[in-house]
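Many introductory courses stop at the sequence. We go one step further.
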Amino acid sequence: MITNPSRTPASATVRWTSAVMSCAASWRVVRMWILFSTSPPSSPSAVRSPAAREGTVDGVSLREPGCIREQGWYAPQVSSDLVSVSRESNGGTMELKAAVLVDVQNIQETFERQGCEVRYDVLKEHIKQHYGLDEREVKFVAFVPYRRDDERRMRLIDALSFMGFRVVTKPVREHPDGGMKANMDTDLVLEAINLADLVQEFVLITGDSDFVTLVDYLSRRGKRVTVLGPGRGSTSVELIRVSDHYQNLGEIEGVVLAKFTQEPLLPDHQPG
């Protein structure tokens, strides 16, 4: 009797390998789509020369966030290089002008290793003030993987929602070998692509080199992209080079606290 191989039950190993290959293929498709289905630049100036890109690195501080433990706060001068966006109304209603996308896993892991705490409410106010934007003119989106048994992460999700962020979550996947995967890169990329027709300014808060292709895509669409990263050794040099402007999160006054706390810090009031 000849058994049809297509009807033979697959082993657990084969099924797991297929699942991994499927996930990898999906991410490759997204990256290829970004690379080849881009719109033409709105103007010749939208294509930046190598010299212009090098200019984004010159003079940029790449030092570590450097929490000042003696004082409790890290409070150097705040960079004034963030571009200002004109505040115009459309028929009396606020027009969406900018999008802020936060890779929470990358930021949290980096600063928690240094015993530091990130004040996302202070960061949000800093961005609004330096861009000259009303709450209704900028969209804040935080991407947060979580485990249900991680109470601190669950409280952080609640805190971000209270601060006015749209919070996109995904449960951490546990592999049979005991490893864990918490990757929301695809979610962030798709959010940026969906917003590209609505806004001209993007602020990407991460140090992950996986977003180099995304930043290059947005730039070729004529968008201005600012990267706020966690500092030298924690922010991809390629990501800095391809962006229009880079700023070290540790240089923004009041954003990085020197003392790690067990409770996420809540703002004093609900943002209006």
